[in-house]
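Changelog-adjacent note: as of this version, every example in the card shows the full chain rather than a window. The one below runs 316 residues end to end.
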Amino acid sequence: AYVGTAYGGVATGHRVLGALSLTGLPIVDVEAGCASGAAALTLGAAAIRCGEHHRVLVLGVEKMPKGMIRSSFYEPWQEEAGLTPAPAWFALRAQRLLRERGLTKEHLAQLVVKNRGAGAANPDAMFRKPVDVDGVLASRVVSEPLHLWMLCSPNEGAAAVVLDREPGGVELRAVALRSHLPGSVLAESSPLAGIDDTEISAPTQRAAAAAYEAAGVGPGDIDAAECQDTDAARELLAWEELGLCEPGGQAAALADGTMAHVNSSGGLLSKGEPLGASALGQVVWLARLLRDHRATVALAHTIGRGANASATILTR
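Full-length structure tokens:
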């Protein structure tokens, strides 16, 4: 079993699975920030591919601490200087996206309306009440241009999938985990780098390209997708990085509703984000759509601290 968790502590997988009497299994805990569940899925798929195991349990579990999400990724002085809160980094990325793509805060609010509307129909969502643009913009500003309702809420949760070498109703066609280019000083859409990165592929672009190639599909084949929306701007950027819309095409896509198939679960903006479980929660949702014949080719995307981006392709 491979267990994704960020805040579970030592031997989380053993504690959880031991309580279920699933003893005697080799259990490996995996931590990669928001991509912990995706990293666990990658390792589980690799173990089956190489013949190490016939059947693998992949579990994501998280009980988030109260208050600011803390991480040993930063030095103490950075935290003391106020450089570590995630909304501040999200806001810098959002400012850049709005400036370069001609978007406004109203477009961010429209994205929230889309996802919260979808989440209203998801019984597993944390927030199941639709919102409107005015309501989103009336919520307090956390870090300009991001308002409170434009940010996902850390919470607790779990998700699990079983991978089997034998074919089943849903096939895991590809799972790719990529970071930035070796030797690059740039991480995930580095907003403070001050470097022209227009010719440098972002981790999400690299992961998506690898997954599309391995699965033999392209962005135009995707009829259901779950992508990272830790904040509203992150999803709008993901559309572009995943090839689901042209660069700068976000405003038009919001207006004509062509991205309704993205985050039909409500996304993290509706479900909240239990870090270790969020990526697997995407896979579980997409597997349900495939089994119910509501999709044929599905894509899951997540990205975690340190620029670990994952793209997963599922088919029926």
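Structural remarks: The longest strand covers residues 55-63.
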